[in-house]
C-alpha cells in the first residue's frame, strides 16, 4: 500500500471535496454522504465512490457519534435502525446488479430529488414508531445502493419539533450504525476493498480537517445560511453528473 507525499498531492481535489462535505456534516448533522457521493464520482467509478463514501462516513460518524451519543434520541435511532436491517438485503442486491453508469445516474437523480423535496415541500409526516421503521427501510435500501442513508431520514425529520442539537446527535449515531451494516453487507456480497481502502487512507486528512473546522465554527455560523448553501450546491453538482452519463 503505497501512501506517498506525491500521492497525497495528486488527491488534492477529492481531498477538498471530503473536507467540504465533512464540514457541512459537522455543522448540521447531515450532508457528508449526500454532498460527497456526487463529487467523488467526478474522480472515481460509481461503485468505488459508493464504497469510499461508506468508509469515510463510517469514520466521521464514529467520531461524532461517540462524542454526541448521550444527546441522541436513542429510541428514535433504534426504530430507524430496525428498518435499515430490513431494507439492506434488497439494496445490496440492486448494488451488485446494476451497472456503474446506471448507479451514477441514479445517485445524482436521488440527490436532486431529495434537495427539491426538502426545499419546496413542507409536508410533515406523523412521528410514529411505524413511520420511523418505514423510513429506516428506505434508508437501508438507499445506503446499500448509493452510500446515502440520509435522504429518507431528512424527508422524515425535516419538519419535526426535535431540538437541533438532539437531531444532529441522533443523525451522527444512526448514520454510523447504517454505515457499519452496509459495509458488512457489501463485503459479504463480494466487494473488493483493496483499492478502495488505499484511496480512503489518502482522503482521511480531508475528513479530519472538515470535522475540526465544523466543530469550531458550529456556535457561530447561522444554520439557515448553511442549509441554503447546501440546497444551491447539490442541484448544480447533480445535474452535471446526470448530464455526463446522458452525454456518454
State the secondary-structure class: mainly alpha
Calculate the terminal CA-CA distance, rounded to whole Å.
Answer: 33 Å
Oligomerization: single chain
Question: Which bin fits the share of residues in helices?
Answer: over 70%
- What can be said about the biggest beta sheet? none
Task: Report the sheet-strand fraction.
Answer: under 5%
Count the beta strands.
Answer: 0
Average predicted confidence as pLDDT = 83
Q: What count of structural domains?
A: 1
Query: Low-confidence parts lasting 5 or more residues at pLDDT below 50?
Result: none
Count of helical stretches: 11
Q: Strand-and-helix sequence, N→C?
A: HHHHHHHHHHH
Cα shape: globular
Question: What is the gyration radius calculated from CA atoms?
Answer: 17 Å
Keywords:
248 residues, 11 helices, mainly alpha, single chain
3D architecture notes:
The relative contact order is 0.21. The two termini are 33 Å apart. This protein is mainly α. The protein has helices at 5-10, 12-28, 32-40, 46-67, 74-97, 100-120, 129-146, 150-157, 164-188, 194-217, 223-247. The protein has one domain. The chain has eleven helices and no strands.
Amino acid at each position: 500500500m503505497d501512501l506517498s507525499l506525491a500521492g497525497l498531492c495528486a488527491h488534492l481535489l477529492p481531498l477538498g471535496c471530503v473536507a467540504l462535505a465533512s464540514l457541512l456534516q459537522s455543522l448540521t448533522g447531515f450532508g457528508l454522504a449526500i454532498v460527497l457521493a456526487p463529487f467523488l464520482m467526478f474522480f472515481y467509478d460509481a461503485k468505488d465512490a459508493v464504497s469510499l463514501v461508506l468508509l469515510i462516513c463510517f469514520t466521521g460518524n464514529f467520531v461524532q457519534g461517540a462524542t454526541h451519543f448521550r444527546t441522541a434520541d436513542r429510541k428514535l435511532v433504534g426504530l430507524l435502525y430496525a428498518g435499515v436491517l430490513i431494507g439492506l438485503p434488497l439494496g445490496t442486491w440492486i448494488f451488485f446488479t446494476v451497472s456503474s453508469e446506471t448507479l451514477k445516474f441514479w445517485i445524482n437523480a436521488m440527490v436532486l430529488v431529495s434537495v427539491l423535496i426538502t426545499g419546496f415541500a413542507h409536508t410533515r409526516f406523523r412521528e410514529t414508531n411505524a413511520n420511523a421503521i418505514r423510513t429506516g427501510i428506505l434508508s437501508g435500501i438507499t445506503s446499500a445502493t448509493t452510500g446515502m442513508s440520509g435522504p429518507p431520514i431528512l424527508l422524515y425529520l425535516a419538519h419535526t419539533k426535535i431540538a437541533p442539537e438532539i437531531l444532529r446527535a441522533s443523525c451522527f449515531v444512526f448514520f454510523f450504525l447504517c454505515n457499519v451494516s452496509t459495509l458488512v453487507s457489501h463485503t459479504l456480497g463480494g466487494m473488493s476493498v483493496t483499492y478502495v481502502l488505499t484511496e480512503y487512507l489518502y482522503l482521511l486528512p480531508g475528513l479530519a480537517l472538515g470535522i475540526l473546522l465544523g466543530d469550531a465554527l458550529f456556535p457561530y455560523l447561522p444554520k439557515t445560511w448553511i442549509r441554503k448553501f447546501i440546497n444551491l450546491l447539490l442541484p448544480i453538482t447533480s445535474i452535471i453528473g446526470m448530464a455526463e452519463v446522458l452525454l456518454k
